UniProtKB/TrEMBL annotation:
Belongs to the GHMP kinase family. GalK subfamily. Pathway: Carbohydrate metabolism; galactose metabolism. This is Galactokinase. ATP binds at S66, G120, S121, G122, L123, S124, S125, S126. Catalyzes the transfer of the gamma-phosphate of ATP to D-galactose to form alpha-D-galactose-1-phosphate (Gal-1-P). It comes from Pedobacter hiemivivus. Residues 280-361 form the GHMP kinase C-terminal domain. Pfam families: GalKase_gal_bdg, GHMP_kinases_C, GHMP_kinases_N. GO terms for biological process: galactose metabolic process.
Amino acid sequence: MKTELISKFLEKYGHEPTANYFTPGRVNLIGEHIDYNGGLVMPCAVTLGTWLSMAPNEDNVIRFKSLNFPEEHEFPVQSSYTKTGAEWYNYPLGVFNEIIKKYPLTTGLDLLFFGNIPIGSGLSSSASIEVAMAYALNSYFNLGYEKIEIPLLAQKVENEFIGVNCGIMDQFAVAFGETDKAIVLNCDTLHYKIVDCNLGNYRLAIINTNKPRKLAESKYNQRVAECQTALKQLNKEISLNNLCELNADKFDEYNHLITDPIVLNRATHVVNENDRVNQAAKALNSGNLTEFGRLMYASHQSLKDLYEVTGAELDAVVEFCSDYEHVIGARMTGAGFGGCAIALLKKGQEDDFTKKLTDFYTDRIGYAPTIYISEIGTGASVI
């Protein structure tokens, strides 16, 4: 990929790049919609991702080009930027806006992006782009950001520049991922531990429903608000910084304070999902993939019934997987409202699984899914 990217850079800019970087996408194995509630999540990096090549220019401009999108733009080097619309380059532009507050840019840059993460699928293409840009600038100009500061900066861009109230999980996972490892991350404290994720005779199937999920335009922010309502009502009698400070028993004791049944459903999912992450870590540590798969199915059911973020497309995928003998666990991953599901698929069954799921899904939904088989990959890096 590096050779091809250098060739395309030369074609588009007339000179070769001076540095090349890769940042993965991510899937969340379990622990969904609890990152912004201070909970535990278990993401891993995948081998799909974002490549970025760059070189300085003498024109005092930042040029954004991509092999995925026709939109190109250049901005003068200046002291701040504002979001221009929905174009892809607003994500790296937001990173520039944040970094130049502390480190004024003294040279123009030519940038070329390429990604093979399905856009709008829930595999964190936006976080991958943001972290790639932040990692590249920090590395190229030796800015001195600590590793933990890169995902925090990227999250701030997503929240304040792009306008999506996401938690830290996506940016953290694509920055800190390790091959054949998962990350158990406390989204409140940012304490984390790396756990072995040896899938043995199974591989990770990523099923793109091909129903785009535009996060900033979805009901994501509504779910955030509903959880904040639950927290406010619980705090009438107890003192909590976030919902995931409660375990299931404590929540049962105080959930009568939540008066809206829909809000109660949201909070119930959050507390139980946080418990499932702890159970999943124990299952992986003991090599019990069957139990891990059971927890994946339970997570999806909760996201369907209590959090209401799945939809017909994701439910169809998980329904098929639950009846397919060579899958031991499946669930939606990401924010939902379309996007992707994941499944633990027995090795050697990839072709059969792809054909049968495609037929089932196309008959049910009316169009085909796209299925990827991925390894658990590494985080942001120089290539």
